[in-house]
Amino acid sequence: MQQQPWTRSGLRAATLDTTRTLLVADGYDNLSMRKIARRVGCSVSSIYEHFASKDQLVHALIDEGFQRWYDVVLAASREPGTPLQLLELHCRRYVEFGVANPEFYEIMYLYHPKSLARVPRELFRRAARSMDVLAELVRQSAPAALANPAEARIHAHVVWAILHGVVSTILAARLDTRIDQQAYVETSIHFAVDSIRRLEPAGV
Fold it and tell me: Which domains does the chain have, with CATH numbers?
Protein backbone atom coordinates (compact mmCIF):
# COMPACT_ATOMS: atom_id res chain seq x y z
CA MET A 1 0.00 0.00 0.00
CA GLN A 2 1.27 3.45 -0.89
CA GLN A 3 2.21 5.45 2.18
CA GLN A 4 0.09 8.48 2.99
CA PRO A 5 1.59 11.97 3.62
CA TRP A 6 0.40 12.05 7.24
CA THR A 7 0.90 14.91 9.63
CA ARG A 8 2.08 13.82 13.08
CA SER A 9 -1.30 14.35 14.74
CA GLY A 10 -3.14 12.89 11.75
CA LEU A 11 -1.04 9.73 11.83
CA ARG A 12 -1.66 9.24 15.54
CA ALA A 13 -5.42 9.64 15.09
CA ALA A 14 -5.48 7.30 12.07
CA THR A 15 -3.45 4.72 13.99
CA LEU A 16 -5.89 4.79 16.91
CA ASP A 17 -8.93 4.58 14.63
CA THR A 18 -7.48 1.70 12.65
CA THR A 19 -6.31 -0.19 15.71
CA ARG A 20 -9.71 0.14 17.37
CA THR A 21 -11.43 -1.41 14.37
CA LEU A 22 -8.88 -4.21 14.00
CA LEU A 23 -8.86 -4.97 17.71
CA VAL A 24 -12.63 -5.39 17.93
CA ALA A 25 -12.83 -7.32 14.66
CA ASP A 26 -9.81 -9.62 14.94
CA GLY A 27 -8.82 -9.70 18.62
CA TYR A 28 -5.64 -8.84 20.48
CA ASP A 29 -3.66 -11.93 19.46
CA ASN A 30 -4.16 -11.18 15.76
CA LEU A 31 -3.20 -7.53 16.14
CA SER A 32 0.27 -6.47 15.03
CA MET A 33 2.03 -3.20 14.42
CA ARG A 34 2.80 -4.35 10.87
CA LYS A 35 -0.87 -5.04 10.15
CA ILE A 36 -1.84 -1.66 11.56
CA ALA A 37 0.81 0.14 9.50
CA ARG A 38 -0.29 -1.63 6.34
CA ARG A 39 -3.92 -0.64 6.91
CA VAL A 40 -3.04 2.97 7.80
CA GLY A 41 -0.65 3.32 4.90
CA CYS A 42 2.58 4.15 6.72
CA SER A 43 5.77 2.49 7.88
CA VAL A 44 5.93 0.45 11.07
CA SER A 45 8.65 2.76 12.35
CA SER A 46 6.28 5.73 11.99
CA ILE A 47 3.83 4.08 14.38
CA TYR A 48 6.61 3.30 16.84
CA GLU A 49 7.36 7.03 16.98
CA HIS A 50 3.95 7.41 18.70
CA PHE A 51 3.53 4.09 20.51
CA ALA A 52 6.38 2.04 21.95
CA SER A 53 4.44 -1.23 21.89
CA LYS A 54 1.16 -2.86 20.97
CA ASP A 55 0.12 -2.75 24.62
CA GLN A 56 0.78 0.98 24.84
CA LEU A 57 -1.39 1.44 21.78
CA VAL A 58 -4.26 -0.54 23.35
CA HIS A 59 -3.87 1.45 26.57
CA ALA A 60 -4.16 4.65 24.52
CA LEU A 61 -7.43 3.34 23.06
CA ILE A 62 -8.78 2.65 26.56
CA ASP A 63 -7.73 6.13 27.64
CA GLU A 64 -9.36 7.71 24.58
CA GLY A 65 -12.65 5.98 25.26
CA PHE A 66 -12.78 7.00 28.90
CA GLN A 67 -11.84 10.58 28.02
CA ARG A 68 -14.70 10.77 25.54
CA TRP A 69 -17.11 9.45 28.15
CA TYR A 70 -15.75 11.84 30.77
CA ASP A 71 -16.37 14.77 28.40
CA VAL A 72 -20.01 13.65 28.21
CA VAL A 73 -20.14 13.33 32.01
CA LEU A 74 -18.83 16.87 32.51
CA ALA A 75 -21.31 18.32 30.04
CA ALA A 76 -24.20 16.54 31.76
CA SER A 77 -23.03 17.68 35.21
CA ARG A 78 -23.38 21.32 34.11
CA GLU A 79 -27.06 20.93 33.27
CA PRO A 80 -29.58 22.46 35.70
CA GLY A 81 -31.53 20.17 38.01
CA THR A 82 -31.67 18.45 41.37
CA PRO A 83 -29.13 15.73 42.22
CA LEU A 84 -31.72 13.06 41.40
CA GLN A 85 -32.49 14.69 38.06
CA LEU A 86 -28.79 14.90 37.25
CA LEU A 87 -28.36 11.28 38.32
CA GLU A 88 -31.08 10.25 35.89
CA LEU A 89 -29.45 12.35 33.16
CA HIS A 90 -26.08 10.69 33.88
CA CYS A 91 -27.69 7.26 33.55
CA ARG A 92 -29.37 8.22 30.30
CA ARG A 93 -26.16 9.62 28.82
CA TYR A 94 -24.29 6.46 29.82
CA VAL A 95 -26.64 4.19 27.88
CA GLU A 96 -26.67 6.57 24.92
CA PHE A 97 -22.87 6.70 24.86
CA GLY A 98 -22.46 2.93 25.06
CA VAL A 99 -25.01 2.14 22.36
CA ALA A 100 -23.72 4.87 20.03
CA ASN A 101 -20.03 3.90 20.48
CA PRO A 102 -19.85 0.09 20.47
CA GLU A 103 -16.15 -0.14 19.62
CA PHE A 104 -15.16 2.30 22.35
CA TYR A 105 -17.45 0.58 24.84
CA GLU A 106 -16.11 -2.88 24.12
CA ILE A 107 -12.50 -1.79 24.58
CA MET A 108 -13.32 0.22 27.72
CA TYR A 109 -15.42 -2.35 29.56
CA LEU A 110 -15.59 -5.71 27.81
CA TYR A 111 -12.10 -6.34 26.44
CA HIS A 112 -9.72 -8.23 28.75
CA PRO A 113 -7.02 -10.16 26.84
CA LYS A 114 -4.92 -12.31 29.16
CA SER A 115 -1.58 -11.15 27.76
CA LEU A 116 -2.21 -7.39 27.84
CA ALA A 117 0.12 -5.52 30.19
CA ARG A 118 -1.36 -4.00 33.33
CA VAL A 119 -3.02 -0.65 32.78
CA PRO A 120 -0.74 2.16 34.03
CA ARG A 121 -1.78 3.76 37.31
CA GLU A 122 -2.27 7.20 35.78
CA LEU A 123 -4.57 5.80 33.10
CA PHE A 124 -6.57 3.98 35.78
CA ARG A 125 -6.99 7.23 37.72
CA ARG A 126 -8.25 9.03 34.62
CA ALA A 127 -10.64 6.20 33.84
CA ALA A 128 -12.04 6.41 37.38
CA ARG A 129 -12.99 10.09 37.11
CA SER A 130 -16.44 9.38 35.67
CA MET A 131 -17.17 6.97 38.51
CA ASP A 132 -16.12 9.66 40.98
CA VAL A 133 -18.77 11.95 39.47
CA LEU A 134 -21.40 9.22 39.65
CA ALA A 135 -20.53 8.43 43.28
CA GLU A 136 -20.91 12.08 44.21
CA LEU A 137 -24.26 12.31 42.41
CA VAL A 138 -25.45 9.24 44.29
CA ARG A 139 -24.30 10.72 47.61
CA GLN A 140 -26.01 14.04 46.91
CA SER A 141 -29.21 12.24 45.89
CA ALA A 142 -29.45 10.48 49.29
CA PRO A 143 -27.32 12.58 51.65
CA ALA A 144 -28.90 11.33 54.89
CA ALA A 145 -28.62 7.65 53.93
CA LEU A 146 -25.23 7.86 52.22
CA ALA A 147 -23.22 10.25 54.37
CA ASN A 148 -20.33 7.78 54.19
CA PRO A 149 -18.54 8.30 50.84
CA ALA A 150 -17.43 4.67 50.77
CA GLU A 151 -21.03 3.49 51.00
CA ALA A 152 -22.07 5.97 48.33
CA ARG A 153 -19.40 4.54 46.03
CA ILE A 154 -20.77 1.03 46.55
CA HIS A 155 -24.26 2.17 45.56
CA ALA A 156 -22.79 4.06 42.59
CA HIS A 157 -21.24 0.82 41.37
CA VAL A 158 -24.60 -0.91 41.71
CA VAL A 159 -26.16 1.80 39.54
CA TRP A 160 -23.32 1.38 37.06
CA ALA A 161 -23.81 -2.41 37.04
CA ILE A 162 -27.46 -1.94 36.03
CA LEU A 163 -26.51 0.43 33.20
CA HIS A 164 -23.61 -1.76 32.08
CA GLY A 165 -25.96 -4.72 31.89
CA VAL A 166 -28.34 -2.73 29.72
CA VAL A 167 -25.64 -1.62 27.28
CA SER A 168 -23.98 -5.04 27.16
CA THR A 169 -27.31 -6.76 26.43
CA ILE A 170 -28.08 -4.37 23.60
CA LEU A 171 -24.61 -4.48 22.03
CA ALA A 172 -24.55 -8.27 22.17
CA ALA A 173 -28.04 -8.42 20.60
CA ARG A 174 -29.23 -10.54 23.52
CA LEU A 175 -32.37 -8.59 24.34
CA ASP A 176 -35.54 -10.66 24.01
CA THR A 177 -37.17 -9.65 20.71
CA ARG A 178 -40.54 -9.44 22.48
CA ILE A 179 -39.22 -6.52 24.56
CA ASP A 180 -39.23 -2.97 23.26
CA GLN A 181 -35.65 -1.72 23.55
CA GLN A 182 -36.53 1.86 24.49
CA ALA A 183 -38.95 0.66 27.16
CA TYR A 184 -36.22 -1.64 28.47
CA VAL A 185 -33.78 1.28 28.68
CA GLU A 186 -36.27 3.61 30.35
CA THR A 187 -37.39 1.01 32.90
CA SER A 188 -33.77 0.18 33.77
CA ILE A 189 -32.85 3.84 34.28
CA HIS A 190 -35.88 4.46 36.47
CA PHE A 191 -35.08 1.33 38.47
CA ALA A 192 -31.47 2.50 39.01
CA VAL A 193 -32.50 6.00 40.09
CA ASP A 194 -35.32 4.71 42.32
CA SER A 195 -32.86 2.41 44.08
CA ILE A 196 -31.10 5.57 45.31
CA ARG A 197 -34.24 7.63 45.90
CA ARG A 198 -35.68 4.93 48.19
CA LEU A 199 -32.61 5.04 50.44
CA GLU A 200 -33.50 8.47 51.78
CA PRO A 201 -35.73 8.39 54.89
CA ALA A 202 -39.24 9.76 54.40
CA GLY A 203 -39.59 13.44 55.23
CA VAL A 204 -35.89 14.24 54.79
Answer: 1-51 (1.10.10.60), 53-197 (1.10.357.10)
